[in-house]
Amino acid sequence: MPVSKNRPFYTLGGAQCWADLRIRSGWRLQQNIWSKRCRILDPFDIRRAKGTKEQCKQDFIRLVETWEVPAESENLIILIHGLGRTKRSFKKIQQHLKKLGNEAIAINYPSTRQDINTHANNLEELLNNLDGVKTVSFVTHSLGGIILRKVLAKNSAWKDRIAIGRIVMIAPPNQGSKTAAFLKNILPIKLLMGSCLSELTPAKVKNIPEINTEFGVIAGGRGKTTKGFDPFLNKDNDGLVTVEETQLKGSSDFLHVNAIHTFILNNKIVVGAVERFINNGRFARKKLKPKKTRLSEIY
Hints:
alpha/beta
């Protein structure tokens, strides 16, 4: 049976209108948030098929076989962007991880157009459809960390065959965000950022389960107790989230960097620290033990 009729067409990859439901070595099956129609993109964001969800599921299998797309490696790292961002925000971190031999895939989800539960359900579906993966680790930014917490709290089928590796949460509003609580009442911002903004308040986030696996937190700020990039927050902060709001019980390591919320993913310290934690469980570089000198080498 042939692939659904489609003229190959270059796209922007999804951004705020499409959600990734399935991935394989750069290929994506996405669903439109309004029409619910689906499409398949190749690693260059060229549309290779379109149709209903069931049609695209079948087409996805045929296309990866036709193009001989390899299955994911046994150890996969999934990168989950924040509110109003796209998979491209993880470009530097993804490149660094791949350079050192890790397989890392940044996913897209329409963060400003659906609620946290919907994002979590889509991510759960994506994880359920992973092929050949035995261990999955995660790197999240801001809202992405809250969505991951929702997913990890679910009793999902993928957990029966895939182990959870390590998790790095970058600038996560783990205690909720007072900034979000303020901005959600401003109509233009509310319309721009969608329902997720109102779900990031301290009152809402406190009901989301904590993480029961190995994870580390990276927070941005100026390193001053009562003054951050946003002077109205009265505590060290990255301009949107305070250092205190990033904290979550049970973290294995913590790193504070001088960076603002929007650009923290491009910080060189953060880029290196993410890779070290995923592979070694610590943000800091390993200290080399001084070499012992024998007396015979001196005399």
